[in-house]
């Protein structure tokens, strides 16, 4: 649904909506058993809920497209992931809870190893340890560029974030990573007039950094890409008329929710704390986004058993989630992360929606193959929000 | 399918197509039995036909969107309901069989109650009885505005239609209903230059009406909205090469069919007469649209049993419908109207298409859950016409 239409059709109500995102939920069957993680796990609470819900499979971005966390979540929040593209620099900053302002341009940084002739000999500086790169980041913080405030923040291993802050900086700047070795890093180039000051500042920063890091054994060079400003997305409250809260352990997901205009509530304690906070904040919000990471982490590690366990661990919280008494309870995922692939994948993701207005009874359990038979079918993740709004009786009739 | 492409691919044939629209066909399961109206009804003729047809579910407008009758039907007629938006004034006029001309601007009118200070104390004038409002409409007909011909027609209870007729009237005029009480009605404002004459005439009409109705106890004020001219849609014959007839009891559905360029034939006697007229007119048309209202009426009243009966009543006509011998027989709905909700809803609508070229055998019966398993899947209602044309061997190959 076009967001302008969403805004036009949205109407106030007192109903509550919960969206639980199990990161990397979908999986693939093991060849020996022909059962996926969801099919093999003992998730009887989810199975029972699926029997009383509308189920289907969400296509996160498009057929065959493997999404990153950004598009995977934005689609579930109702944003066309082709249209709303969040720059990598912003995602990196959001992922470490850096508060980007409207005058900031963020970039993803990589430490690299430069040979004596100035060419790149290792694009990841031997995956330098996080403690090492944190120390080097401290050194880079001493660099000053006239007229531009500089922030350098460590991320993990060879990755860091650079933020330039000054009025009027454009973000259309080309990356300096040549994407191969044995050639020198590229100079940053402005891709529009507004960004020429940014490119100059970036090149000045790189020159100072290369000078300063000359004595480092591994990480003696830097490469920057994904220059981006904090995007101004249509905000959740404005589009859907929902006061929305995000409850997530990891900053990346709180950050993505903040992009959409949700209030991010940190819940370091995990699901138990997340559910308790929903209970505490029940009257203050209409929409609650809960993020569960363990399914994706196990999938990324290629650990089928641990992904099963993560599902079972979540399953134990399902009765408490139901007891919250939301008018619409949705459980889905931002993408699949099959243990078999040890990576994100393009496969559609099991999804269930429970409300008083459901065509229930299609699925016997909550898993990939059962969801194919569901009354929601296979559908774009970007349609989740309109469906939720409809089931919450928060959308007006279209046309007379 | 884009209508230009439809026109390009359409080819002549002697085949016949019947589209039966059961208004508000889709439903929801009762919580006690987990069976919907269609699942609970004894509709053995429809069930048998579904077994020999391609079945699926149509999404009338978009996921989560509850359509009015206008978009619900236009989509089935092949018009993208986002693109072809029929103004409310036109729909009201069409719904009472008022023949709108090309120079007419129609508006939906509401009688309201005004307090002595001129503010709205009841936006529906206590839902004044139809006989009362018909009497008051007679009074309003005496108002004359220089240079503009005025028509006032009663609809039902507090609703009426105002039509202004004059060359060059624009229809971009803001509504006068403030959408809340305890404030005065708004003045009509022209939203473009062409509509300034319309706004002036509307305001003059309102001033005279308010003066005239001063002595009415309930309906002493009026509010107008949904100003619209009769839209010029691409016509059925031109787009699809089909001579099309509409057979409907209610003027609203004849009117919607006329918008598409169909010839509307009144059939006050209902299905028996509708089928007889198809028989009589067989050689004169290629496409027959039959409208059946009782399913929606029962659903709107929240009467599960009566909706079952309406389905059963329709089911009895299915043998006669089949006997007509159309090359393509389709049975579907413009939207769902679950008795459980006593209102239109967004849920996809069961649909069947019977022809000599069907992948049949997916569904055991004609109902919501069975249609999920059908060979048509869940698909946009706007795709019904291209499918019908294909099964009627009336679409050329695309590309070499």
Give a quick precis of the structure:
The structure is a homodimer of 400-residue chains. By secondary structure, the first copy, chain A, is an alpha/beta fold.
Question: Could you describe the 3D structure shown?
Answer:
Two copies of one chain form a homodimer. Chain A is of the alpha/beta class and 400 residues long. In chain A, 31% of the residues lie in helices and 20% in strands. Chain A is built from 15 helices and 13 strands. Chain A has helices at residues 3-9, 37-40, 44-51, 69-76, 88-95, 130-140, 196-212, 236-240, 251-259, 271-280, 294-300, 304-315, 318-323, 368-372, 384-391; strands spanning 17-22, 54-59, 104-114, 120-122, 149-156, 159-165, 221-229, 244-248, 263-266, 287-292, 328-332, 349-354, 377-380. Chain A has an eight-stranded mixed beta sheet, with helices on both faces. In chain A, strands 3, 4, 5, 6 and 7 form a five-stranded antiparallel beta sheet that branches. In chain A, a hairpin with a 5-residue loop joins β3 and β4 (120-122). In chain A, α4 (69-76) crosses α9 (251-259) and α5 (88-95) crosses α9 (251-259). The mean pLDDT of chain A is 95. Chain A binds chain B through residues 1-2, 5, 9, 357-362, 373-377, 379, 383, 385-391, 395-400, and chain B through 28-29, 34, 36, 61-72, 81-82, 85-86, 88, 91-92, 226, 338, 340-341, 344-348, 368-369, 372-373, 377-378.
């Amino acid at each position: 649904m076009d967001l302008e239409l969403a805004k036009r059709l949205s109407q106030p109500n007192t109903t509550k909506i919960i969206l639980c995102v199990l990161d990397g939920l979908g999986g693939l069957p093991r060849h020996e058993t022909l059962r996926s993680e969801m099919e093999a796990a003992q998730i009887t609470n989810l199975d029972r809920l699926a029997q009383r819900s509308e189920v289907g499979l969400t296509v996160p971005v498009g057929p065959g497209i493997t999404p990153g966390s950004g598009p995977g979540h934005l689609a579930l929040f109702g944003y066309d992931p082709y249209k709303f593209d969040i720059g990598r620099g912003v995602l990196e900053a959001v992922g470490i809870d850096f508060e980007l302002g409207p005058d900031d341009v963020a970039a993803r940084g990589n430490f690299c190893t430069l040979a004596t002739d100035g060419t790149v000999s290792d694009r990841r500086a031997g995956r330098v340890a996080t403690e090492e790169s944190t120390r080097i980041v401290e050194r880079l913080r001493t660099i000053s560029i006239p007229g531009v405030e500089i922030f350098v923040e460590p991320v993990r291993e060879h990755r860091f974030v650079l933020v330039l802050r000054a009025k009027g900086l454009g973000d259309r700047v080309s990356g300096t990573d040549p994407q191969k070795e044995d050639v020198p890093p590229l100079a940053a180039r402005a891709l529009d007039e507004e960004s020429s000051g940014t490119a100059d500042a970036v090149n000045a920063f790189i020159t100072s950094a290369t000078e300063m890091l000359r004595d480092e054994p591994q990480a003696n060079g830097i490469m920057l890409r994904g220059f981006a400003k904090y995007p101004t997305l249509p905000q959740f409250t404005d589009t859907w008329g929902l006061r929305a809260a995000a409850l997530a352990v990891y900053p990346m997901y709180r950050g993505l929710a903040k992009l959409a205009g949700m209030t991010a509530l940190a819940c370091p304690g995990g699901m138990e704390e997340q559910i308790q906070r929903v209970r505490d904040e029940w009257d203050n919000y209409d929409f609650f986004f809960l993020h569960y990471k363990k399914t994706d982490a196990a999938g990324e590690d290629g650990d089928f058993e641990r992904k099963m366990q993560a599902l079972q661990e979540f399953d134990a919280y399902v009765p408490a989630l139901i007891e919250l008494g939301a008018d619409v309870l949705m459980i889905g995922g931002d993408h699949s992360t099959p243990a078999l692939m040890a990576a994100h994948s393009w496969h559609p993701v099991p999804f269930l929606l429970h409300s008083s207005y459901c065509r229930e009874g299609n699925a016997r359990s909550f898993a990939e193959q059962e969801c194919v038979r569901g009354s929601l079918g296979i559908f774009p993740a970007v349609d989740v929000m309109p469906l939720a709004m409809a089931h919450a009786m928060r959308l007006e009739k279209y046309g007379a």
